[in-house]
User: Fold these one by one.
Assistant:
Number 1:
Amino acid sequence: MGTRKVLTTKFVVKLILTFFTIILMAGIGYTVTSIYFSNQYFYETTQRLNASLAKDLVAEKFSNTKPFDSTGTVNKVLFGDIMHNMMAVNRAIEVYLLDDQGYVQYSVVLDHNMPETNQKKIDLAPIHKFIKDDGRNYILGQDPKDLTHQTIFSAAEFNQNGNKGYVYIILAGEDFLAARSDLFNGYLMHIGLGGSLLTLFFSTFLGILAIWHLTRSLRKIIYAAKRFQEGDLKYRIENADSTDLANVATTFNSMADTILSDIEKIKSIDQLRQELIANISHDLRTPLAVVQGYIETLHMKGDQLSAAERQAYLKIISSGSERLSNLISQLFEYSKLESNQIQPQKEPFLITELANDIHRNYSMLAQNKNIALSLSMSDDIPLVFADISLVERAIENLMDNAIKFTPENGEIVMKILPSETHVEIVIQDSGPGIDKESQALIFERYRQTKIGQEKEGSGLGLAIVKKIMDIHDSEITVLSNPNKGTEFSFELPIYSAI
């Protein structure tokens, strides 16, 4: 009981930990995704709002003031004023002047005394695409401070006095992005951490309630298994079909029913074995006592007995030993049938030939009791498919029964009746018959029933017949009424070559 409780607790803990891990991973994924899409939203919005900034700057500043003097030198005063004016409004903006090849001509945010500054070349493909789309689409371009970095921009083309180039405005400069990233990540960290903790708390609480509810059916099954283990073999899961684990619950109920049925069968077998010991002990004791008694008589009075008396004693001893031999053979045969040691060797054969042989073998026994033994069958009986030796044994057992219980001047008829798919074998006698209550018992192993004034030996003959029929997937039936005789019958399948 304690072990089952520990196992249940471990299972529930594993479910909770698994649920907690899923929520945690989902929270981390949500936070990372939120940061990424928030940045994307910021960049797209900023670029869309400032898409015309470079175009407006060219239209406003370059109409009255030239970006280059007569010698082709960059008007640094103009660009200094532009940069300072724009940065006063938005410190994220950086303005660059590019020639028509994409090389950086001037910017106040760069140190032009450094040789590599004038060698920086911006990829013009994104700029051409931006100008062609008029800034309607989200496009990233190179950052002149770090050519490996892509960022949002606004760009416009100019042509003044034969000087061609581009005004290239970075809308989110490197310094601005660094400061924004620190502030934004800190903000998200606080929001994300607080939100994650609250989410984890409520999710875990709701998860525990959900798991507890979902495992209710499992707990019922475990409780039922515990009750069954403790000996309550009739306990079953109520409404098994309507539970969350209907397949498992119904399987448990079926398993419990099977186990209970097997236990009942074992008890029945044990009881029958006890009956067997009692019945066989009685059946063995009587002939053994007779044989032993007559042997002792022969030893003690051998000289005093006449030849006729001695012959009569020996005949009784022989009959008793034969009875013992037959009983032991039946026990051995039935034990092999019951343990499935005998596998039927099915083959096609003529049931008429077998019936004729059996009729001929039992004719002498019938004559000795003045019993009329007849065989009724037509000449067109088809082949049957069965184990010929087992079928012969079954018919012989039925014939032994009929000879034993049919009185003198009685009648026994063996019939072979064909149908479309089977051939029926019938053994009919004019004996005392069997009452309805006994008919339900005569095929059970080790059962003994009274038929007329006779007692049916150990009860193995008909049990062997039934077992042989079971092996052939057939059924032995009995029709009988007291004082009106008994009819046993079974069917064998007709052989088909197809």
Number 2:
Amino acid sequence: MLDIKNITISYQDRPTVKNFSMSLKAGEIASLVGESGSGKTTVIRAVLGLLAGGGKVTEGDILFDGGSLLQNTPDQWRRLRGTDISMIFQDSGAMLNPTRKIGEGFVEYIRTHEKMSKGDAWKKGVEMLERMRLPGGDNIMRSYPFQLSGGMRQRVGIAMAMTFRPKLLLADEPTSALDVTTQAQIVRQMMELRDEYGTGIIIVTHNLGVAAYMSDWIVVMKDGEVSDSGDRETILHGNHSDYTQKLLDAVPSLGGKRYV
């Protein structure tokens, strides 16, 4: 489904991500892990064509369903984003307009991608919110973002991202700044979406525990390059680099046992 071929991403002719490659099949979950500034978010923004500040892919290619994303026109990107490829941002609450109720933005988003009445779009939004285990979807649609908790706002973001059952979901630190109980709920819901829709997921995280729990494939990044990559068992228990071992050693232990 997705094939990233040896890409280099540069800002003002200075490469920040070098020689990055990975593949993802339908229904697979891959994690990009590493310290802040290692290039994880830059990679998924390149996949969605949303590199900021003049960033561009200067080498390699990104193929989605066999076609090059780098050749997309603005109109092709508009049709693709939010439908076949969706993204959950690090803080979904920050991406919601604070002056508009959830329902206003959700209905507009749905009607941008599908021809339907406002009433039908409202019902679809309520249905997606309740799929995310948000009780009283109609009340949430009538709420402002500031009236919801961080976990609820994050679920709204996931609900919007999954509205059109995308083939690929990009998640940028979707559990950061949430309490551990809410983190666990968000992770389980993302895995249920994979199971229900066959969606492929790339999750960016600094939490190796989250990556170990949910991923089929783990890519460890350092200084804009791939330090390690492999299936979960290989990264956690097989041969890996010294840097990966340091990340594993940094995972807190409980009663002398480390849960990765």
